[in-house]
Amino acid sequence: MPEEKMMPEGSSAPLADVKVIDVGTLLAAPFAAAILGDFGAEVIKIEQPSGDPLRRYGHQYDGVPLLWKVVNRNKKSVVLDLKDPGNHDTFIDLVAGADVLIENFRPGTLERWGFSPTKLQETNQQLVVTRVTGFGQDGPYARRPGFGTLAEAMSGLAAMSGERDGPPLLPSFPLADALAGMQAACATLIALHARRRIGRGQVADVAITEAMIAAMGAQVTAYEKLGVKPRRVGSSSDNNAPRNVYRCADGRWVAVSAPAQSVAERVVRLVGRPELTDEPWFASGRGRVSHRDLLDNAIGQWIGRFRRDEVIDAFEEAGAAVAPIYEVDDVLDDPHFQARQATVHVPDSELDTVCMPNVAFRLSETPGSIRWAGPRLGEHTDDVLNGEHP
Q1: Which of 16, 234, 353, 354 has a CA between 20 and 30 Å from the CA of residue 281?
Q2: How do residues 13-28 score in pLDDT, each as one tens digit?
Q3: What is the pLDDT of residues 156-188, one digit of tens each?
Q4: Against a cut of 0.90, is the pTM above it?
Q5: CA distance 162 to 169
Q6: How many CB atoms within 10 Å of residue 30?
């Protein structure tokens, strides 16, 4: 296994000169702050005395929340009740020395507490304020409660997900929050870069609904030009075929994708139907979609005769695209993911170590790293508020 190139310690980390105040809760905004922390930013997580609701969300081990450990890695936990006017000056002092404030309260909440972006930037002109909400800071829905599930519903994702005759399908994990978190991290970095040129910070307004709509690609473009609405097609695609999941003889599953005609040709030859390549409709993705039931039947019957490992070996030998349908233990056992260190064991004061996804992208000279898992509630309050930096 190749040795992982860890992020340089100290000032050589790419974001070591960036201080982030994370007052977000649950997922989208804290996920953005975590990405910055992965690359060396000092991230101070401000929590109410009751703690971030994420501490009570999802699986726990001996009472310790596991999702918390992942989403709030590389952060310092500070307990500070922002609703208490007595803590106003303390928070303003923290913001005065920060580069970024990330929040995801309902619009108007920070303003009600006396912390509007305008006021904060009067204290610190260089401050970037990244605001993540369900629907954005303005518009008719701005003050509605907004969560990732609502964005998945309103973006068109649920309407096009599921089996043909089944109901709309929501993803079983927080997809929209993760996408919005990545968009928020990107917006923050762009604002920090622009600060060098314009000489001041700015406000980034990130709506989870709009992040999800953007991820849907050209669905609105196709509707505006052609009146086409995406349909529920299960694991198939309206753009190309073959593309589906198929059950093997041992009960395991594989996914097959053939976005290029050359790959589609290899697949049908492999499964014993080379004559299909001579059909006029086979020459385009849309043509193959119009005959996807025929293709699925041919591929499904062939795959159903063999064990999954036999199917994958045959596809790889033929140069056709296939992948096993993994469960989580398969992910951990996969030799490629192990070689790439797609998951890592992170030291933790409560659980000794915690296994979690590694930093999602690699930089050749200044790679990111996960130095510690999500902290205990208020673990760093005294150190941060007293100006100490352990």
Answers
A1: 234
A2: 999 999 999 999 999 9
A3: 999 999 999 999 999 999 999 999 999 999 999
A4: yes
A5: 5
A6: 28
Asked if 29 and 175 touch (Cβ cutoff 8 Å), the reply is: no
For this structure, is 177 an active site residue? yes
- Active-site annotation holder among 22, 38, 52, 177: 177
Give me the domains of the chain, ranges plus CATH numbers: 10-216+346-385 (3.40.50.10540), 243-332 (3.30.1540.10)
Single-letter amino acid code for the residue at 78 = V
Q: Which of 160, 154, 157 is closest to 141 using CA atoms?
A: 154
